[in-house]
Amino acid sequence: MTSPSSEMITLDADGVLTLPISTADNGTALDHDLVLAGTEALLDVTRGVRDAGAILLTGAGKNFCAGGNVAKFAEADDRAEYLRGLADDLHRFIKVLYQTRLPVVAAVSGWAAGAGMSLVLHADVAVGGTRTRLRPAYPGIGLSPDGGMSWALPRTVGAARARHIIMTDQIIDAARALDLGILAEVVEDDAVADTARATAAKLAAGPRGSFAAIRDLVHASASRTLTDQMDAEAASISSLSTTGEGVEGVDAFLAKRAPDFRAAR
């Protein structure tokens, strides 16, 4: 039986898999049911059940995600067990997000706090609006980060700045988030959703092998020496050169026409 959360997840004709992570309910807090449904949708991608070319993370309310549902934290009979379960489920979602090897776009309208900010950091392209705000939020309730924030933020802004941002619970406006490299683009607030979706559609139409390799190379670079990284680059570009997309890209360039990567898959 299809759950209401599953019905909010869509795969359109352009190959964009849209995964909402919050709704207007509970003040746009991270929706646990949507996290679980999103994980299943992502697993379908890894199994080849869904033919997606890009992933779009969105909020279904005024905010991308205002963080965890703190009221439910307080209601839990065993708070430690409850929070561990939430964190494990969110982390499984993020792990499978990476396993798809697909480009990830985030439409960051309004606030992205706590786990919402963590998810923004895992996007390849995060599009915000002029009123977008990000905040770690964890110290404000006496907790530590989850959602991979303590891994992703140092890789984006540097370890010293990440510690400063998280420990002082900074509110980061759109302009600063753009300067820090957390947001890739800032547009008018009413254009965030359309811009992010158009970006996801453009990526979905592009060379999937190339994008997957780019993500793999960039993510692995932090733990490799320069020599090892260049060896990986050489192996990757060589391997891609004989794929349908690689051949089409080179042929199209020489013919001075736009490549048709969809047809080449």
Automatic annotation (TrEMBL):
Keywords: Fatty acid metabolism, Lipid metabolism. GO terms for biological process: fatty acid metabolic process. InterPro entries: ClpP/crotonase-like_dom_sf, Enoyl-CoA_hyd/isom_CS, Enoyl-CoA_hydra/iso, Enoyl-CoA_hydra_C. It holds the Pfam family ECH_1. It catalyses: a (3S)-3-hydroxyacyl-CoA = a (2E)-enoyl-CoA + H2O; a 4-saturated-(3S)-3-hydroxyacyl-CoA = a (3E)-enoyl-CoA + H2O. GO terms for molecular function: enoyl-CoA hydratase activity. Could possibly oxidize fatty acids using specific components. This is Putative enoyl-CoA hydratase. It comes from Gordonia malaquae NBRC 108250.
